[in-house]
Specification:
The complex is a heterodimer of chains A (about 300) and B (about 300).
Chain A lengths: L9 H24 L4 H6 L11 H6 L18 H32 L5 H13 L2 H15 L1 E2 L4 H10 L5 E2 L4 H24 L4 H9 L4 H12 L1 H17 L2 H6 L7 H9 L6 H34 L3
Antiparallel strand pairs in A: 1-2
Chain B lengths: L2 H34 L2 E2 L10 E2 L3 H7 L2 H32 L6 H13 L2 H11 L6 H8 L12 H26 L3 H9 L4 H28 L4 H6 L11 H10 L4 H43 L1
Antiparallel strand pairs in B: 1-2
The chains are: A mainly alpha (about 300), B mainly alpha (about 300).
Chain lengths: ~300, ~300
């Protein structure tokens, strides 16, 4: 059987090449264009005949570059700041989701609270809720209800230290955005980690307990190291959602907590799009997920297929 | 606290953070939304200060032609996208299910479009569809054909194509995993009995893959109703309402028209629609399972 399938029809390879070109082509096109000046993009110097320039990247990153730019009078695109915001939000929400999700998954598996059906049901239900549906209530709650009174001691403390008018609310802070991302991702993370924790042999934990380890020690020193592949898959999925999300972040962020997707959308909706600069910001936003994909595609595929194939 | 009580409390301590966060940031907001959908609510007001209007938001939406249009666009988009992606994705999986040396590299390249931010996907396609700068029209003109008004006249089609580009790999990868976990014995038996390639696919592979395919289809369908950023960046819902899917309309009602109560009612309609679809597909899956179990029992009794 293996011998039979070694020789494929040439048309088969042609199809493969075509498929690869179709899936990678648009990304490559964006990458190439990000090194072109707008003049080159519009005049249609086709293909690869152009002088590559990093000017677009310089314009995008003008607020964090250590040197002055000649071609720019005023740094309007604060990409560097948004990039840092995105990074903080994505990393913190990933770490929090993993820690909390891991603990919950462990409790669900080892102490047999709820069946796996309950968890997969919840996961499916949460997956069913579009971010657009969460937009209205989250906007209302984060702005009006999840606030600390400015007269209270904690609210007063925060206000004195960080300034601002009125009550201290979750909206407009990093933590407000992080909270909703953690909640959105938790069910999926719990569910995927469950399938890994089930495979950890019970005897190992019992042996550790015999040696005098408490439940927390068993969890952190025995279970966690054994489910690293599951953690990697869950981490990539959470990071990707937090890194790429636009809608909720745009409702909850203020001038100082804008993430990169918001910046890109704001610059796209203007009448005269500066293609080169926008493509450069797009490339910068796309780089972290692309790196993850290239180095951890096995974990990503595990995470994706675990959903449907194992049921 | 003694050691044994600590031991007994551990599972609760481990579960509490997750439960608290989900209660605060998912369940409470959803309840808040249902409550808000019965009120006349604009963003400057706190919800308790608003007036109760009963079902008025729901009824006005029910009679609103723009809402109907938006609903139709959403359904057209979701069903065309999912059906085309299922056909191409499953077809490719059947075709590429061979022992290729570079298969893992191929899969890596295929999942790239899914990992990239939807905002960036929208940006790339908006550039490629651009009437004068874009690569499609430029190639068409280069070949002497007329240019196409991608994001104008054919906006919905263009959006569908972009979504197919991004999400067909998802179905491809899931079907490939399903194919590779099929029992080898059944395929072997069919080959020995002289079944042709097509017969194997239609009578053995597809029926055995069916449960996975249904779940895949369901996941994809749910996600198709969530698409927002790609369309927002490409067309902003236009021209007219031709690509304004419900998710986009909800966010515009909330942010531009500042009618949070109506937006909440619309969100509830969308949730009910999704719930209905999910229940239908899961019920269909159950029916298939029951039927398969009965067929197996009959076969065993026949022996």
């Amino acid at each position: 059987m293996a011998d039979q399938e070694k020789k494929q029809h040439p048309a088969f390879y042609a199809l493969l090449v075509l498929l690869i070109m179709m899936s990678v082509g648009p990304i490559a096109l964006m990458f190439v264009n990000s090194f072109k000046l707008d003049v080159d993009i519009i005049s249609g110097t086709s293909g690869l005949l152009f002088l590559p320039t990093i000017q677009n990247y310089e314009t995008a990153l003008c607020d964090v570059l250590p040197y002055e730019l000649d071609h720019l009078d005023f740094c309007s695109l604060k990409f560097g700041g948004s990039f840092i915001n995105s990074l903080i939000i994505a990393l913190v929400s990933t770490v929090l989701t993993l820690i909390i999700g891991c603990m919950a998954a462990y409790a669900l598996v080892r102490f047999r609270f709820m069946g796996r059906d309950t968890v997969s049901g919840t996961t499916l239900m949460v997956r069913m809720v579009p971010p657009a549906v969460l937009l209205v209530p989250v906007f209302g709650l984060w702005n009006n209800e999840f606030c600390l009174d400015k007269e209270g001691w904690l609210g007063g403390l925060i206000r004195d230290n960080f300034g601002g008018r009125g009550d201290v609310c979750l909206a407009g802070t990093h933590s407000g955005i992080i909270l909703i991302y953690v909640a959105m991702n938790l069910p999926f993370v719990i569910w995927i980690l469950q399938s890994f924790i089930v495979q950890v042999p019970r005897q190992l934990e019992e042996a550790a307990r015999m040696d005098g380890a408490g439940p927390f020690q068993v969890f952190f020193k025995v279970v966690l190291p054994l489910i690293k592949p599951g953690l990697a898959a869950a981490a990539i999925f959470t990071f990707r959602i937090a890194w790429n999300e636009y809608l909720l972040a745009s409702a909850l962020s203020d001038r100082d907590t804008k993430t990169v997707p918001i910046l890109i959308v704001n610059n796209m909706s203007e009448f005269n799009v500066e293609w080169g600069v926008i493509m450069a910001t797009g490339v910068l936003l796309a780089i972290p997920p692309i790196i993850f994909t290239l180095f951890a595609s096995r974990q990503i595929i595990t995470g994706m297929t675990a959903g449907a194939v194992k049921g | 606290m003694s050691y044994s009580t600590l031991n007994r409390l551990t599972p609760y301590i481990f579960l509490v953070p997750a439960l608290v966060i989900m209660a605060i940031a998912l369940i409470y907001p959803l309840g808040y939304m249902v409550y808000g959908s019965f009120r006349s609510w604009d963003p400057s007001q706190a919800l308790p200060d608003t007036d109760f209007v009963g079902l008025a938001n729901y009824i006005s939406l029910w009679n609103d032609p723009n809402f109907h249009e938006s609903l139709m666009v959403t359904l057209k988009f979701a069903f065309s996208v999912v059906s085309i992606e299922m056909v191409i994705g499953v077809g490719l999986a059947l075709l590429l299910d061979r022992n290729l040396r570079g298969m893992s590299l191929l899969r890596t390249l295929f999942i790239l479009p899914m990992m990239i931010a939807p905002v960036v996907v929208g940006l790339m396609w908006r550039y490629m569809y651009h009437p004068s700068v874009g690569i499609f029209n430029r190639s068409l003109e280069g070949m002497g054909l007329g240019s196409v008004d991608w994001l104008g006249q054919h906006a919905l089609l263009s959006v569908v194509i972009a979504d197919i580009w991004q999400w067909t790999p998802f179905i491809f990868i899931l079907s490939l995993a399903a194919l590779q976990s099929l029992p080898r014995s059944a395929l072997e038996a069919a080959r020995i009995d002289g079944a042709t390639g097509w017969q194997q696919i239609i009578h053995i592979k597809l029926p055995l893959m069916m449960p996975v395919l249904i779940v895949t289809c369901l996941l994809r369908l749910i996600d198709a109703f969530k698409v927002l950023e790609v369309i927002l960046v490409m067309t902003e819902g236009g021209p007219g309402l031709s690509t304004e899917i419900l998710a986009l309309r909800i966010s515009r009602t909330a942010t531009e028209f500042r009618e949070l109560g109506v937006a909440a009612a619309m969100s509830n309609y969308l949730l009910m629609l999704l719930l209905l679809l999910t229940i239908m597909m899961l019920a269909y899956n159950k029916v298939l399972e029951v039927r398969a179990a009965r067929a197996r029992r009959i076969a065993e009794e026949g022996l």
